[in-house]
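User: I'm writing a tutorial on reading structure tokens. Could you give me a worked example: one chain, its sequence, then its tokens, then a sentence or two explaining what the tokens reveal?
Assistant: Sure. Here is the example chain.
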Amino acid sequence: MQQFVRVRGVAAPLPLANVDTDMIIPARFMKALTRNGLGAHLFEELRFAPDGSERPDFILNNPTCRRAEVLIADRNFGCGSSREHAVWALDDFGIRCVIAPSFGDIFASNARKNGLLLVRLPEAICARLCAEVALSQYAPIEVDLTAQEIRLASGEVVAFVIDADDRRVLMEGLDDIGRTLRHEAAITQFEAT
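And here are its predicted structure tokens:
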């Protein structure tokens, strides 16, 4: 799993509440055997018209936001079914961090296990961040997990708090297998006895 220490990049505002995992990656695209290529179908129904053409009003079709690394969303992002593919699609597109007031529980667990940082901030602050990044014409922001701060192009700093264990796992780049392998010597000793 890729470590997350800090990311500096474009933030795309997506002020929609209750974005479920089927909106993030529709089930019909979950047939792949690898994680690669899922980003092409991220928000498929929102990004593309039925004829396959891009919807010009969708934020990730904005030329600047095509390379967004941060998504600023609304409450209950990632609700719905337990599909790890939703996190994989965000990662494959290049999204490293999602900022929202709340997240679906299973989505949040999958995010941590796959190196996607989720930052919970109050609704009013998320709405203000959406407005601020649009006003700055999507100038890069920085999300610093070490300092637990978001630095905006305006110079404003927004502090956030993340669970200490989640923070450590993300900063060390440890998925569940990596966490287990930290105890490899004890496992080997146990197996020998």
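What the tokens reveal: The chain has eight helices and eight strands. Residues 96 and 169 are 15 Å apart (CA to CA).
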